[in-house]
Specification:
Radius of gyration: 16 Å
Structural class: mainly beta
Distance between the termini: 26 Å
Number of strands: 12
CATH class of the largest domain: Mainly Beta
CATH topology of the largest domain: Elongation Factor Tu (Ef-tu), domain 3
Number of helices: 3
Strand order of the largest sheet: 1-2-5-4-3-6
Strand content: 35-45%
Largest sheet: 6 strands, antiparallel, barrel
Helix content: 10-25%
Shape: globular
Length: 197
């Protein structure tokens, strides 16, 4: 479980085929402190297990499905990824509950400066728009954000300078794909009320 408060952006060191999956190696920073093999780390919002630690370098195993269904498919040596360690029981819940299970990829349709901030607009795959509500929560590349407006399958969020500086959003361009995790509470409400998809 995570909160969507991204600690830092790590740099991809290697993406290599390993058996039926892939190995992803990322150089981290302060997130390394206290980590051990077997711990969970959200990488661009995907919950991955640390399989190896060498200095500041973290290794993760990726299933083909994870690579195909998330924007980790475009991870290359030198590209940056968002990193967040898992929530400790006595930790602060600064964002919202984020599981690290990606619902789909949204396409960036607008990414522009707006005064001191930035506006990001994205279009979600058909069917996911039902989980988006103004002032609701969404995780974009693992970052907990508050939805501004929703128009059919498009929604927007506002990015403050701090978030822009410490995450990979500053690397994004219009047309890029971002990992999307919709609010867990909305999914449970849908299930319990028997709402139709």
């Amino acid at each position: 479980m995570f909160t969507g408060i991204v600690a830092e952006a790590g740099v991809v060191q290697a993406v290599t085929r390993r058996g039926k999956g892939w190995s992803l190696e990322v150089e981290g920073g302060s997130i390394i402190a206290g980590l051990k093999v077997g711990d969970s780390v959200a990488v661009n919002g995907c919950c991955l297990t640390v399989t190896e630690l060498k200095g500041k370098q973290l290794a993760f195993d990726l299933l083909d499905e994870t690579k195909e269904k998330t924007n980790l498919q475009s991870a290359r040596v030198g590209s940056r990824v968002n990193l967040e360690g898992s929530l400790k029981a006595d930790g602060k819940l600064g964002g919202h509950f984020v599981t690290g299970h990606i619902d789909g990829m949204a396409q960036v349709t607008k990414w522009a400066r707006s005064g001191e901030d930035w506006e990001l607009e994205a279009e979600v795959p058909e069917g996911l728009e039902r989980y988006l509500v103004p002032k609701g929560c969404v995780a974009v590349d693992g970052i907990s954000l508050t939805i501004g407006r929703v128009e059919k399958r498009r929604f927007n969020v506002w990015i403050i300078p701090h978030t822009y500086e410490v995450t990979t959003l500053r690397d994004r361009n219009e047309g890029d794909k971002v990992n999307l995790e919709c609010d867990l509470l909305a999914k449970y409400v849908e299930k319990m009320t028997g709402a139709k998809k």
